[in-house]
């Protein structure tokens, strides 16, 4: 999907790198100007806003060239979905992550009201780092696992509220994505399909009875109707995305409310 740069939100906390690399932006812009094709950026749509989750260097490079739109892979999801996705972005492709980038991802999750409850293995999987790396940062930040107290036989015991053990049955890290390749044949086929539709319209008008003026009017009307159909199809798709997004958002909000209630109860409030 092609979206205007101005509709993309870049201020929602989905930029998970420690810093944006200006040199990389300049290199991307130079390659784009030379005709190189780049993968679409990843955008999360919650029914109202489009949040850029991966592709900030491509975004700024496109903007530097004075272009107003960019190719986007649009995913239905909430802002928190976009933030979580951004923690693993560029683990295998694009500009390699620095140690500062990896650290920022882990620290952000450890300081989040929900994700701080995850164990080391879960956070490591989300950030594409090792569980030991998460443990070290936890120690540096003095983050202690929550504990619960209970009484048994007149004695008071304390245990971790959540196990920090690494789940050996966790899903494996997905393999490295294939390098993006520009397919001129696919582009040619799309162009031929569009041209074929135009020829069909011209042939239909030519076979009509009527004056040249009437045929010209019919051509314009057909073009207008085709554009209207395209707009209606886009609106229908947007409505579907909005519906799915609201359902997802509702589920996320229920989960967050339940977690906050649990914390309030644990605090005795």
Characteristic key phrases:
269 residues; alpha/beta; Conserved hypothetical protein from pyrococcus furiosus pfu- 392566-001, ParB domain; 2 domains; 5-stranded mixed β-sheet; two-stranded antiparallel sheet; 8 helices; 13% strand
Q: What would you note in describing this structure?
A:
By secondary structure, the chain is of the alpha/beta class. The protein folds into 2 domains: 2-183, Conserved hypothetical protein from pyrococcus furiosus pfu- 392566-001, ParB domain, CATH 3.90.1530.10; 184-269. 51% of the residues lie in helices and 13% in strands. It has helices at residues 22-33, 56-64, 79-86, 99-110, 120-127, 131-141, 184-206, 212-266; strands at 2-4, 8-9, 41-45, 50-54, 69-76, 147-152, 155-160. The strands form 2 sheets. A 5-stranded mixed sheet has the order 1-5-3-4-2. A two-stranded antiparallel sheet has the order 6-7. It is elongated, with a radius of gyration of 26 Å. The two termini are 48 Å apart.
């Amino acid at each position: 999907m092609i979206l205007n740069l101005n509709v993309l939100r870049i201020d929602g906390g989905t930029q998970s790198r420690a810093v944006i690399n200006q040199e990389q932006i300049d290199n991307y812009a130079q390659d784009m100007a030379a005709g190189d094709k780049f993968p679409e950026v990843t955008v999360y749509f919650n029914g109202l806003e489009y949040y850029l989750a991966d592709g900030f260097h491509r975004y700024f490079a496109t903007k530097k060239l004075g272009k107003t739109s960019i190719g986007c892979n649009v995913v239905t999801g909430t802002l928190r979905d976009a933030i979580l996705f951004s923690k693993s972005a560029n683990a295998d492709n694009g500009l390699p992550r620095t140690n500062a980038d990896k650290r920022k991802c882990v620290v952000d999750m450890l300081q989040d009201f929900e994700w701080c409850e995850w164990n080391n293995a879960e956070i490591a999987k989300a950030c594409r780092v090792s569980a030991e790396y998460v443990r070290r940062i936890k120690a540096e930040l003095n983050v202690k696992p929550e504990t619960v107290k209970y009484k048994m036989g007149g004695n008071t015991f304390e245990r971790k509220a959540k196990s920090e053990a690494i789940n050996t049955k966790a899903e494996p890290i997905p393999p490295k994505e294939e390098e993006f390749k520009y397919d001129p044949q696919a582009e040619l086929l799309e162009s031929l399909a569009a041209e074929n539709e135009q020829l069909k319209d011209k042939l239909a008008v030519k076979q009509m009875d009527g004056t040249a003026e009437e045929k010209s009017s019919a051509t314009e009307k057909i073009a207008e109707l085709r554009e209207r159909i395209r707009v209606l199809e886009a609106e229908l798709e947007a409505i579907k995305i909005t519906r799915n997004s609201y359902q997802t958002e509702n589920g996320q909000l229920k989960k967050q409310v339940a977690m906050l209630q649990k914390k309030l109860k644990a605090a005795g409030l």
